[in-house]
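pinned: reference chain
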Amino acid sequence: MVVSLRLEKMAGSLVSVLADHVISVLIEKIFEEISLAYRHREDLELICDELESIKCLLNDTVGAWKMNSSSVRNWLQKLEDFLYDTLHLLEDSSQAQHHTTCISRYLLCRKIRVLKERIRCIHRSSKYLKYLRAIDVKPRPGLVSGELIRNRRKSSGLLLEATTVGMQNDIDLISGWLLTDGPQIITVAGMGGLGKTLLLQHVFNSQKIRESFDHLIWVAVSQSYVAHQLLLHIGRQTKLPDDEKQSHLNAEEVRDNIRRHLQGSRCLLVLDDVWDKHALGDIGFPLEGGSKAMLSTRDRKVLENVGAHRIHHMDYLSEENSWRLFCIHAFPEDSNHSPPEELEKVARAIERKCSRLPLAVKTVAASMASVNRLPNEWESTLNRLNKISTIKEDILPILKLSYDALPDYLKPCFLFCSAYPEDTIMSCEYLVQVWIAQGFVNPDEREDSYELGFSYLNELVDRCMIEFVPYDGNDYIIKYCKMHDLLHELALSESQIQTRCLFQAGKNVEKFPVEKCHSLRRISLSKNKITSIDKTIRSPRLLTLLLWKNLHLKSICEDFFKKMRHLSVLDLSQTSIKSLPKSIAKLKHLRFLNLSRTGIEKIPRCFSGLKNLQSLDVSWCENLASLHSGINKHQSLLNLNVAGCSNLAWVPLGISKLVSLRILGQVVFKLRGNATNALQLRDLKELTLLQHLSIAFSGRSNCQDITVGIFGGMEDMRKLFFENYDEDYLVQLPEDMSGMRRLEILHLHNCVVPSWISQLHNLMLLLLKGDYSDSYQDLQTIPNLRRLILIQNKQCIDFPTDFGYPLSFPKLEALVIEDFCQLQRFPSLADNAMPMLQHFRLVNCRRLERIPQGLDRLNSLEKLQVIGCERCRNDLQENGHYGQIFKRRNVQVKCE
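pinned: its structure tokens
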């Protein structure tokens, strides 16, 4: 009997308590492994049957629970505790089955019988749920499958216009104020959800504004800010000299350094989401020489005290724009974004209940996109909206409805985002890894956990619960995401009500709250001021502990982890710790460990006991001298990141034994002979499940080791990065690498472009760094290439004459040519060449005689940037041939 139990499919509008964690265990396999040795199949089958019955009961009561019922809350906590205890017992038993004694078998048998009695008792007490269900059961709208939602987005794409509906007049007004000599401080005010941040982003990124200022600085302030951290952030954006040393200075010293650095420059400072009237003064930014500041706030006290020269109060959408925005998100699969005739009346009624507030409109609309196209299903949502009198003073109730409409498997993923400070930009890859480690992502035998995790993230974005942050200004390169501050507020309130957690990230906490931890499951104290942890805590139920970005945390007492044996996620990144306490060896259930950007000097031998570890990140640990030799014992490891470990002389051969690895980055192969047990290139051939590989070579002998048979078996590869430090030798890539048919991103540095590259049908991003212009024509037939980046070619004088022939680069959207110091001529582009090209960027091609001819034939071109190409400027003057054409077609042109 195979059972897959998802713990998160338990909730309803009040409880995601059990949606904290996911148990998806193939019970049949575990039965086979341990029942043969211990002969307790009947007890386990009974437990399984009881859980199946409870699962059916909970699925039937979705939407009917009352959070103010203490009996329900207590019942759910008992069930949650039981499920975690069962999971941990099964994991411990599976690990220990090959070296057990009669006593340990007897103890295991007793534990299982205790579990059996506990679940019987829990099931009997479920009559309270039946009673509640009889009182207030409301059917939940039928949901469209997540796969269909993702397919809808792929087929139609949410139009860019959706982000600026009804906002153009505001954009023009603010831009006009910035481009005049008058006001220095401009404030955008309004309640949450009106789109203040979005308005400032569009103004900030507009071509005219960027051309008018020497420095553009964006700072997300939020409610609990630290002036010193904001100043450091400004220093990084303005490229303040000796950036790393600034963190050791006080706020006043950093402020003075910024003033000196920016003296004589015209700057635009944006302070988003200001709650404190002193924020601008605390930063002390120099508003002189034409410099200006823009602030957004929803607090009237800020307006009264910040000294704004211009105040723009944002208003609600017009009825027409509100309906347009709703349709774009609710009916993305329709080319005209129009509702079916039978749904229009109820759809308009739902839209009106959103009170023309943009965030409410798009969030509710996006949730309706997942509801079946049946009038009665939509009317059910309308009935629930009718219970909310107005949202103009409080948007959270309507956002709560969108949260309630999430599929059960998405709720814990959404709630966990509140563990990070407001306005945090999160790495998508990091977020998915943490979800996996906590059991929120539960693939079946045919699914990959990373693919499923990213599909969860995409679905949350489709539902407007999370938003992607474009990387390098391009929406199709997805690396980061963030959550609107109101949705963050919702997620935080739901987490604190429905789960046993302590989320105080970014709250200026100075001491670890030892006394509050006993019954907690999740703790986030990230981005605080904790300097040391000198007390042991007893927290046997703790699953997640986030301490990242406590910049001055230097020490953790030796026994700190001794009594949190069920911890599965630990993040100590961006702290100042140099060594780990020995008690970390007690964390037998640890799955995710992030030590990146710490002062760690070595990985202790006791790490070998962490058998369940799935993700280990030691990237940019510049003091790290060695990984432990027993790393081959981490057979569950899926992700290993050693990028930027400049002091790491070699990586151990044992990595080649980690056959479950999906991500490995970035391994540097230095001169051979460092150590007899060092990993060599040829050893990578065992890692056939890799999906993301980043490697670098130092020394020609290592480059020559790339031969047939090493990479040919890696058929699941998605992202591949090759960096060759020997500029005098181009690496030849073996032909069997053409089998990487799922490859999407490829970076090559000083590597020969292979003739078979056009066979990579899924390749979307290609970066070529180095001297190999002879192969550029081979790139033109890659069928799905979206972005091509060519950089640092010191030899290319002329591009191939057939570069840009008709129908070349059929899907290319962005072309970047940068640092071609010898380039003089570029061939004329033919008709129908690059038919989808939107962005063309030429940078530091100082000998280029003129811009490529035929640019006016690129009918999809939206943005042209020519920077550091002095001889090309005349071609783009407004009264010139291209200048007039591009002006007429509204192409954004930047020429410096």
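why pinned: The longest strand covers residues 474-482. The CA atoms of residues 432 and 454 lie 6 Å apart.
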